[in-house]
Amino acid sequence: MTAILSVCRPYRAACLALIAAFSASAYAADSPVCTTSVSQNEIDYGQVTRAALTGRETNPATVRLGTRFVTLMVNCRDPVAIGLTVTAPTSADGRARFGESGGIALKAFNGVVDGQQTRLAMLDGATPRASAESVAIRPGDNFGPVNASGSLAPTTHFSVQLEIDPQISGEATKVRSETRIDGNLRLVLTTY
After folding, report:
1. Is residue 9 scored above 70 in pLDDT?
2. 0.85 exceeded by pTM
């Protein structure tokens, strides 16, 4: 995720321009039998004034850039159990870092295994914990699709929606010159 903050002064009125983009990649580390892809490698937030970001609040503690969605797809030659690990620099609160002090809240939901809706679970290696329709994920977390009995679900085609919600501090919106804010995520596939 990339953001560019800059101050501009049209007609002597101060404004803040914000350009943000999210970049993600999926990588099949251990698997010559599976390929991964994401629906968008980048999310562009365009230009936004500081007033549009902060609303009527004059000094917000945090500013949300807006939730966006990306679909992750895994295609395997033969049915195989999989897990996906999020890798990214980490913020102080454990989320994926966005800039110096911001973070990206991530959630995986709407898992589909071979055309059938499935539940997701956080994984300890190849062992699923409790399953749910969605899981909040952070850097270092490993998650995957599970079947009705709670075991990893072997799949040839798996897709999952990722909810991406970047936030920055209100102070980070107060800039005097163009400032670049970056954040990148990577999802690494493991087969079991």
Report:
1. no
2. no
